[in-house]
Amino acid sequence: MYYCFDNDMRKIIILGGGNSAEREVSLVTAQTIKENLELRDIKVEVLDPADYSDWVTLLKHLHNESPEMIFIGLHGAAGEDGRLQGMLEICGLPFTGSGSRASALAMDKNAALCLATDSDISVAPRQLLFKEEQTDIEEIIRKVSLPLVVKPNSSGSSVGIRIVDKQSDLMEAISAAWELENYVLCEQFIAGRELTVTILDGKALPVVEIKPLDGWYDYTNKYIHGKTEYICPAELTQEETLMVQKQAELIFRKLGCQVYGRVDFRYDGNRFCFLEVNTLPGMTSLSLTPMAAKAADIQLPDLLLKIIELSKNKKG
């Protein structure tokens, strides 16, 4: 599959880096996007929001450059949570991926889980904690049960996530997550397989199974070669594959997401348990969305061009 673009088009500006905890991964994503678009003779430039004194200065620069498209290669806070998307919308600047509302909803893990429940998609028992409120450890154990996962409510790349097996370790894990943000999610750990489904133009690509060789799919296992085995397409029955793809498409649509994204699940052999939606999936050599696209016979340069094409025509 090959997408051809007019080489006389104005350049594509890629945003990468930023100031979130996922800055380093974002820089790699941005560079990968640049290199692969250049393979199709597209004029590109990478800008790092951290190099600008504030968002207004960056937006003025983007407006003056008048790019064909702004490819958002940011991850985490500010780049992925709808704030940047909202400012670009107000300025009338074209950008890749979902709009501000869907980005904000997807970044808020608890909000996305509530929408999944309303759509009859299974989710794990959980409790949302606010830093300024009193924390009752015994109540959390009663509602969620051990082992459980402690995670910041609005972050990615497994930053700040801990799996807790003992009650005595729970408060320390919660406090560590509070160092990153004020809302923390305590979610029951679902034993089983970790699966992810990339959505492109509303349709699911082949399912990827993630199998860390040691421990769980933490930051190290995500971004260091040789730490994790990836199986794509995942070894599921046709019925299982269609079921998880259908659920991924449904929650993607319910959140109002557009163009592309990735939906993560745990599978215990009986049910697919929805975890979260990533509206700006990574594009590194170990990223899951390029793997799924390759299994669908879409090479990375063509995937990026397709994302640009779809972003030009998205609604709202």
How would you describe this structure to a colleague?
- This protein is an alpha+beta fold.
- It folds into three domains: 12-96, Rossmann fold, CATH 3.40.50.20; 105-122 and 192-307, ATP-grasp fold, B domain (D-amino Acid Aminotransferase, Chain A, domain 1, 2-Layer Sandwich), CATH 3.30.470; 126-188, 2-Layer Sandwich (Dna Ligase, domain 1).
- It contains eleven helices and 13 strands.
- It has helices spanning 23-38, 55-65, 83-91, 100-107, 109-118, 137-144, 170-178, 219-223, 238-254, 288-295, 300-312; strands spanning 12-15, 44-47, 69-72, 126-130, 148-152, 162-164, 183-188, 193-200, 203-204, 208-212, 228-231, 260-267, 272-278.
- Strands 8, 9, 10, 11, 12 and 13 form a six-stranded antiparallel beta sheet that branches. The chain has a four-stranded antiparallel beta sheet with strand order 4-7-5-6, with helices on one face.
- Helix 3 (83-91) packs antiparallel against helix 4 (100-107).
- The longest helix is centred in the C-terminal third of the chain and has 17 residues, at 238-254.
- The protein starts with 11 loop residues before the first strand and ends with a helix.
- The model has no long low-confidence stretch (mean pLDDT 90).
